[in-house]
């Protein structure tokens, strides 16, 4: 892991993510890109009436000073930090900046969401999780010394998950963490017998090219199964693939990866399929 990006809005939630990102960067001798996005829009940046250009410059300079002050942290000692300020608050820019700098991991803070708020508003972190081709680590609480030793990876044993599994293994290896694979068996149309699951595991291992130890966990739905298995396994982190569905597809079908990232108390790493 050579480079990490963490978006900052100066909130306590983003600072929790920032401290975790700094810890990961230090342990991996990685560059930490710290991204702050202003609330300016194109009209404010170009208008000659109502909002003067010098006011825009003032806001940008103010943001630069605030970011520099924010970066004055003792835990950044020995960390290579690259501050970046973008003029617009467009969450697609996070992925763009990450790709431009060959970033290996995006770290974001989140307090999750539920109910009507989740349905109609969602969260900024959820937008990034849904759209990013780069793994996203979602941090829910303060973690002074982030050092996970057990990582659960939920897998439906389909070929589209192989690349996500490879990236999950790479993330686990970077922490020297044990990677535990789990298949969640649910009732209804998705239920598989023991023989069917064993056959699917064999077929999946044949595709991967080597044998894998995969736990089978029974629960009423996949999200609940992943969270319960993670808790029972004393996991420090959960890894999940996500399809990144949008629009009506997301409304009707949802995305298990996004739901787990929203509702888990543990840190969650998402890998877009």
Could you give the topology of this structure?
Blueprint: E1 3-7, H1 12-28, E2 31-37, H2 42-46, H3 53-70, E3 80-86, H4 92-100, E4 105-109, H5 115-120, H6 124-131, E5 136-139, E6 150-154, H7 162-174, E7 178-185, H8 194-208, E8 214-218, H9 222-232, E9 237-242, H10 247-253, H11 256-263, E10 268-272
Task: Please give a quick description of this structure.
By secondary structure, the chain is an alpha/beta fold.
What characteristics describe this protein?
43% helix; UspA; Rossmann-like_a/b/a_fold; Rossmann fold; 273 residues; ten-stranded mixed β-sheet; Universal_stress_UspA; alpha/beta; 10 strands; Universal stress protein UspA; single chain; 11 helices
Explain this structure:
InterPro entries: Rossmann-like_a/b/a_fold, Universal_stress_UspA, UspA. Pfam families: Usp. The protein folds into two domains: 1-147, HUPs (Rossmann fold, 3-Layer(aba) Sandwich), CATH 3.40.50.620; 148-273, Rossmann fold (3-Layer(aba) Sandwich). The longest helix has 18 residues, at 53-70. Strand 6 (150-154), helix 7 (162-174) and strand 7 form a beta-alpha-beta unit. It is elongated. Strands 3-2-1-4-5-10-9-6-7-8 form a ten-stranded mixed sheet, with helices on both faces. The protein has 273 residues and is of the alpha/beta class. The protein has helices at residues 12-28, 42-46, 53-70, 92-100, 115-120, 124-131, 162-174, 194-208, 222-232, 247-253, 256-263; strands at 3-7, 31-37, 80-86, 105-109, 136-139, 150-154, 178-185, 214-218, 237-242, 268-272. The chain starts with a strand and ends with a strand. The chain is built from eleven helices and ten strands.
């Amino acid at each position: 892991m050579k480079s990490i990006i963490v978006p900052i809005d100066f909130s306590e939630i983003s600072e929790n993510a920032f401290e975790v990102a700094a810890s990961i960067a230090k342990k991996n001798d990685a560059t930490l890109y710290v991204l702050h996005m202003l609330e300016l829009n194109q009209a404010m940046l170009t208008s000659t009436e109502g909002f003067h250009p010098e006011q825009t410059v003032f806001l940008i300079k103010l943001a630069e000073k605030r970011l520099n002050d924010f970066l004055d942290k003792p835990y950044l000692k020995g960390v290579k930090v690259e501050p970046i300020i973008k003029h617009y608050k467009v969450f697609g820019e996070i992925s763009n900046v990450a790709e431009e700098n060959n970033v290996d991991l995006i770290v974001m803070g989140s307090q999750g969401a539920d109910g009507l708020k989740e349905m109609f508003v969602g969260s900024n972190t959820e937008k990034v999780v849904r759209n990013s081709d780069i793994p996203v680590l979602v941090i829910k609480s303060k973690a002074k010394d982030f050092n996970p030793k057990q990582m659960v990876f939920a897998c439906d044993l389909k070929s589209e998950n192989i690349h996500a599994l490879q990236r999950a293994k790479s993330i686990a290896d970077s922490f020297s963490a044990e990677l535990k694979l789990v298949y969640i068996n649910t009732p209804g149309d998705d239920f598989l017998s023991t023989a069917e699951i064993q056959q699917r595991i064999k077929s999946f291992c044949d595709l991967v090219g080597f044998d894998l130890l995969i736990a089978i966990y029974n629960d009423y739905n996949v999200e609940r199964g992943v969270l319960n298995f993670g808790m029972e396994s004393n996991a420090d982190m959960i890894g999940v693939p996500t399809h990144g569905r949008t629009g009506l597809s997301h409304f009707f079908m949802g995305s298990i990866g996004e739901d787990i990232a929203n509702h888990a108390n543990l840190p969650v790493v998402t890998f877009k399929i």
